[in-house]
From TrEMBL, chain A:
Gene: AP3M1
Organism: Macaca fascicularis
One record GO biological process: intracellular protein transport
Pfam families: Adap_comp_sub, Clat_adaptor_s
Classification of source organism: Eukaryota, Metazoa, Chordata, Craniata, Vertebrata
Cellular compartments per GO CC: axon cytoplasm; clathrin adaptor complex; cytoplasmic vesicle membrane; Golgi apparatus; postsynaptic recycling endosome
Protein name: AP-3 complex subunit mu-1
TrEMBL record, chain B:
Compositional bias annotation for Acidic residues: 709-718, 734-745, 793-802
Originating organism: Macaca fascicularis
Protein name: AP-3 complex subunit beta
Pfam families: Adaptin_N (PF01602), AP3B1_C (PF14796), AP3B1_C_2 (PF24080)
Keyword Membrane: yes
Amino acid sequence: MKMIHSLFLINCSGDIFLEKHWKSVVSQSVCDYFFEAQEKAADVENVPPVISTPHHYLISIYRDKLFFVSVIQTEVPPLFVIEFLHRVADTFQDYFGECSEAAIKDNVVIVYELLEEMLDNGFPLATESNILKELIKPPTILRSVVNSITGSSNVGDTLPTGQLSNIPWRRAGVKYTNNEAYFDVVEEIDAIIDKSGSTVFAEIQGVIDACIKLSGMPDLSLSFMNPRLLDDVSFHPCIRFKRWESERILSFIPPDGNFRLISYRVSSQNLVAIPVYVKHSISFKENSSCGRFDITIGPKQNMGKTIEGITVTVHMPKVVLNMNLTTTQGSYTFDPVTKVLTWDVGKITPQKLPSLKGLVNLQSGAPKPEENPSLNIQFKIQQLAISGLKVNRLDMYGEKYKPFKGVKYVTKAGKFQVRT
Amino acid sequence: MSAAPAYSEDKGGSAGPGEPEYGHDPASGGIFSSDYKRHDDLKEMLDTNKDSLKLEAMKRIVAMIARGKNASDLFPAVVKNVACKNIEVKKLVYVYLVRYAEEQQDLALLSISTFQRGLKDPNQLIRASALRVLSSIRVPIIVPIMMLAIKEAASDMSPYVRKTAAHAIPKLYSLDSDQKDQLIEVIEKLLADKTTLVAGSVVMAFEEVCPERIDLIHKNYRKLCNLLIDVEEWGQVVIISMLTRYARTQFLSPTQNESLLEENAEKAFYGSEEDEAKGAGSEETAAAAPARKPYIMDPDHRLLLRNTKPLLQSRSAAVVMAVAQLYFHLAPKAEVGVIAKALVRLLRSHSEVQYVVLQNVATMSIKRRGMFEPYLKSFYIRSTDPTQIKILKLEVLTNLANETNIPTVLREFQTYIRSMDKDFVAATIQAIGRCATNIGRVRDTCLNGLVQLLSNRDELVVAESVVVIKKLLQMQPAQHGEIIKHLAKLTDNIQVPMARASILWLIGEYCEHVPRIAPDVLRKMAKSFTAEEDIVKLQVINLAAKLYLTNSKQTKLLTQYVLSLAKYDQNYDIRDRARFTRQLIVPSEQGGALSRHAKKLFLAPKPAPVLESSFKDRDHFQLGSLSHLLNAKATGYQELPDWPEEAPDPSVRNVEEEDLSLIETHVGLLGEYTEVPEWTKCSNREKRKEKEKPFYSDSEGESGPTESADSDPESESESDSKSSSESGSGESSSESDNEDQDEDEEKGRGSESEQSEEDGKRKTKKKVPEGKGEASSSDEDSDSSSSTSESEMTSESEEEQLEPASWRRKTPPSSKRAPATKEISLLDLEDFTPPSVQPVSPPAIVSTSLAADLEGLTLTDSTLVPSLLSPVSRVGRQELLHRVAGEGLVVDYTFSRQPFSGDPHMVSVHIHFSNSSDTPIKGLHVGTPKLPAGISIQEFPEIESLAPGESATAVMGINFCDSTQAANFQLCTQTRQFYVSIQPPVGELMAPVFMSENEFKKEQGKLMGMNEITEKLMLPDTCRSDHVVVQKVTATANLGRVPCGTSDEYRFAGRTLTSGSLVLLTLDARQAGAAQLTVNSEKMVIGTMLVKDVIQALTQ
């Protein structure tokens, strides 16, 4: 397992703007194979993640309009590399607030230092954000000003101890004046609704994201009213697996700051409540250069909560030239280049259902599109976990102070698609 | 040198004009424009003694490197700063060095001495980082230095430094593969390491340097399995992948035992010799019924499956995939299903992850379709999926389709066919074709559907349909005359060559079904022949030939026309084909022999094509691997071996004392070479041999082997405490020891006075038996380890016999000191003698750390005398500080088992001080404790003064965090500080709980499976009365008795102090003598250790 040999960061226009080698230097020209594949794929999403070249293998990910292309020389589990590259991107996001070319270029030295710590000889070394932040402090405006005046640095002058402890994800000596622990239960509904409005497939994917600002070494346990709902769970390494197996309690010493505690799935065997319905009628007339477009959206099983933040995105067929629509609520845009129609609806009020209707201009002479486009719907329901999952209590051991605790529930549309 | 900068900057190539990289720096500004001058500027900045300027310069240089520009001409200026005090400058210099050292080898050597100094730094992190950089400098001349540094670091006190050593191994190996043998030795040593930190890295090194040396794994197999869950994610992947290969060589196939059963008696004969540890009584079965030997999974095989399963819940996709492939390759059929859910979960992840997972699911779903069937809908395709994901999902859906779910699958396919993504539509049509061939019931439906597609406007769709229809028709042509006619009509419109060719082939093949149309088609084709694609031309010739043979009256002229056209075609294939066909079909004088058989040649019934998945048989590559993904062997791919026919000797994984002595002969785990004293080698071994067999057959039970892995002799040698060998020190305890020593090392460093103190302690240690005689009433146990033990040995348990090994530490200090004094100057290459090849070569050790190490030894040795575990002496005191070491201060401690008032999670420890010196001792208090994570101490109030001859008692609380890690702290007087450590026996980590029998049973019911540890034992005669049993158990562990209805069962309950986890202990002594001990606790480590301790207490 030689793991990762080199890493190239490439932007959408094909510039290699950063390279890092962990062993001997590999020439940039190796990226030509990648560009070739990219050209062949036409769409960025279709670039194969693994490319074989005569002397190397290229494993790449596409994140936030950037390609992370790693050079591999020998057999290695591809997921290992992919997982690592995403971890790198996550770290950039975490450090710079965004994982963009500009942010990386502005912080190139920090990026280099991070990469140096994250891989040793191509094998991952320190990837936990808590540890990295002890080694290399993230830039803040204040600090960069102070640094430029005093000439001090971002590199931590005390060396981290976390790596040496039994709890590598938490740094030592955390202190807060206000001790807080917040949990966001976020559930996403993945669904495919067919033409007639019946559900082809639906399931709930949930995550619990935590924001923990607690001093010392708190030992938390989080219990649910109805833990049996969780069908398949994946854990942050801090969670004691045995305790979950036997008692269905999440017991853990948390990392400091923001992290994802668990992700879970509520199986499709359980009936999933679909909070919205869409009435649609999209038709293209044969031998004419126009078509009709009419959609109305309404609340269904919404558990008495308001559905907000509704957005409908439609990828129209290539032959569509323009759309002339009127909407009763919100606003719409149609991009004639990408053929994407976006309708920003906002909140649903049951008294007056929002609708969008009008004419579609087609390229004259072209055959009418065969398929009606599917509608991708986004929405959000505050204060509700659609699966019914409820946190029972949060207890803290190991520290004496009383923390402030909070749990928030949100339901969102995940990959929610209506076929028309 | 002066010309070099300009040159190399040119070489740097990609530097576009007007790159603004220096623009933001006011010092460089726009004043100097030429490159080399700018570099001069950087050099100047590097040469100043202002850190801020240096930092600025280094930042700019690193930015240049990041953009792939050449900065090698700055090497001399940069390398000077390697010893810079500013930590960030230093780091950036390291970055630079690693990048350019290879190009500037001579200059790079200048920096080496800095790293050598770093290697001896008291701070473990600095040692580690020095080794990291040193090993990353790819300069062949420093190979011997690297080798020495690695060897030294591999014996470092700090697990973090050892981890770095493991990382350095592959670096050195890639630099000079001749070092392999020596590196293997280091790997072997590090493999024995007990810390989770090291495990992943050393297995990585193993995989890279010597994956073929599977024998190195045997002894560490169980340990690796047990550590796995606590290793960091990246290490987990590497270990799991390695263990998959290991298991394939060491265990029998769980699925194919039937074939093995047919093996004859000869095989069984081998089995009888080798399987003695595995199946008790396998000899008899083998002899009596050679043909039938039921498959029993090796407990170690089971251990691996059991310990990897929880990792399916990891957040890391790579870990989940690694476990999934392990189950796929190793688990019995019935158990593989568990991985499906986890893999389906990964489909929500990033699209790259989806891509890889789907590839693997596609392969798995061919072999084990049932596994993914419940998740069929999770593979439904969304219009927003990228095409490559769509096609893979389609592949999976097709593999999963069967008689029952085909209607839903086809309905889905119907939606897909209307997609705008034409590549995807084509793939869908192919998929429909495959469903039709696989599932006979729907063949007609599919065919009709495809025929409807023929009127599709999109030519690609039509063409793809034709190709698929052609394949389907071949299966049952007779019924489909209509379809063929329909196809024939299409030749007018369809332009895609492949489709045209397919239609022509169909018409030719089944011309008897369309006797009227076929000649007409040929006529049309003859007309357009010259304009057709090659592939179509060939089929036209084919059609002509077939028609000529069946219907020569109508088509003779047409055929001849076509053949003549073909004869002058540009393509030689077509010319050849025409000549060849003519010879065959047109009877002539000479060629009669073949043309008589022309009909047979052309119109032979052809087998229908099989539509197969491209993922079929891909599983001969290890799933999850790069090779599997590419469907080609990648460089460095390790073939997954086939299961052995007969399992290799499973006893190799048993960990015994003999091996301990072997390993010890190489290099002691702590780095010092210790000569094995004669007396440890003596007679013990013979006796042990007799003992081995019963021991292993005793541990037949599920958890047996696991435990014996826990009691790996290495841990004994490491923990240096004979009592810990008795209490079955698990990983946790030995881990803590590493840290202890590490801390001790830091404390002890460089203090001369302490060394003399050490000497004192060492002397004390030899007197321990006498000292104990005073302190505790039952010293038989502790004495058993002295030379008188031989006579008692036979009656004692296996663990007991390990004692002498740990006692070997008591070698005279001089033998350890000797190498320590040898300072090796690594830079001085002339003086440098490469490390000798012999494994016994003593690596140098910093003398202070050695001293600290020894101090640790003394302390742990005395803290946990074995008598602690015997019920009588439980109330007796353990020594914390001996009279001599403490300069007159004697400190003992007892576990009082009273709840600690301050904090219920703490174990309360009574500390007894007495002053045997002739001066009063003042200001006794606890100094700053350096504790392993999680452990905390509630100090006792300071004792102001202790007059000579006086004694005092204080109570302190220690939260051991439910582990048997030692708590280390300092005892301070006004003048002195003593380093002491208290390590609790596992039984003291809990407090009794009182519950009813029903409650007990209810709780026990919740703690089944992995949380239950059962062990069989024989109760000696002396230990059969209720009173004795209860007394012995409660003496060993702080548990409360639970009332019990039946007379021969004993139940005890307690909760661990820190986490409050229940510990339930059941002793079932129904038969005379034979008993069964069960411990239920979610703290498995505690459970395991407890079982061991209780058994020991009961059987002695």
